[in-house]
Design goal:
This protein is of the alpha/beta class. It has helices spanning 9-19, 23-26, 28-41, 60-63, 77-89, 128-138, 158-166, 177-186, 207-215, 229-239, and strands at 46-52, 67-74, 95-100, 116-119, 144-150, 190-204, 248-261. The chain is 37% helix and 23% strand. Strands 3-2-1-4-5-7-6 form a seven-stranded mixed β-sheet. Strand 2, helix 5 and strand 3 form a beta-alpha-beta unit.
Length: 262
């Protein structure tokens, strides 16, 4: 049975709107994941490419080398506005289109894009299966659909430490690798797919910086509320047991999906 994931899209949109000014200072994980995904694109140049969940356009400089027409889509208007500035500063040599839109209702025609690149965005969908179906729908036959997503049991040890202190979740609920494999099995129109899990860890010098790194990219918890002073002090003390020479760890389970439309 699939894990239950509840999404308040208005809350998510506002979180990313607020994070549009800080995203590029705190996107260490996002850069690691995007780098892995770019290797999946190989050396192929596609006539058109959809960057689904483009954020402030941080992946545009790399993706521009893989396509003729670049289409960036994001739920957050503020993120799209930032992306406009990034593309302008890069003196884009591709034909570029930026759209504020929803992964679950993409405003593009069926069979209209030659490749899809969606990094750490689909976990914010209300119904991930609908978002996956939309990415398949807009892709042309034979097109690659590359997706990365945060999986269950991420943001550790933060999540387990927070729960042990006050019973509140320290991370948003996420689908598991088996959940995603089930969705891919059920999705019509895919010729083949591969879905793997990789563990990635980012480090911070202290708890404040660690939490700012989460908030700074818009990935705020939907539950749990603000830390009380007592919870903060206990969490900071407990986290020290996990410190290494690199700092305080925050470990994510990341799913990488490589699929091809029939």
């Amino acid at each position: 049975m699939l894990s239950q994931v509840a999404i308040d899209k208005q809350h998510i949109q506002h979180s990313f709107d607020r994070a549009s000014t800080s995203y590029q200072r705190y996107n260490q994980l996002q850069q690691q994941v995007a780098s892995s995904m770019l290797t999946m694109l190989g050396a192929t140049n596609y006539p058109s490419l959809l960057d689904a969940g483009c954020g402030p356009g941080i992946n545009y400089p790399a993706l521009a080398g893989h396509c003729g027409d670049y289409i960036g889509l994001d739920l957050s208007r503020a993120m799209v506005n930032k992306a406009v500035a990034v593309l302008s500063a890069a003196e884009a040599k591709t034909n570029s289109t930026l759209i504020q839109g929803d992964l679950e209702a993409i405003g593009l025609a069926t069979n209209s894009v030659d490749a899809v690149f969606s990094s750490l965005a689909i976990q914010w969908a209300h119904q991930p299966a609908e978002a996956l179906a939309e990415l398949v729908r807009v892709s042309k036959p034979g097109s690659p659909i590359l997706i990365s997503t945060v999986l269950a049991d991420s943001l550790q040890p933060l999540s387990q430490l927070r729960t042990a202190i006050d019973g509140q979740p320290g991370a948003n609920p996420q689908l598991s690798l088996s959940d995603w494999r089930y969705l891919l099995t059920q999705q019509q129109g895919l010729a083949r797919w591969r879905c793997v899990e990789e563990q990635l860890t980012v480090y911070s010098p202290d708890l404040k910086t660690l939490l700012l790194g989460i908030k700074g990219v818009g990935a705020t918890a939907r539950n749990g509320g603000t830390l009380s002073p007592g919870t903060w002090r206990q969490l900071a003390a407990d986290y020290e047991a996990y410190r290494s020479v690199a700092g305080l760890p925050l470990t994510y389970q990341i799913g990488f999906i490589e699929a091809y439309k029939e």
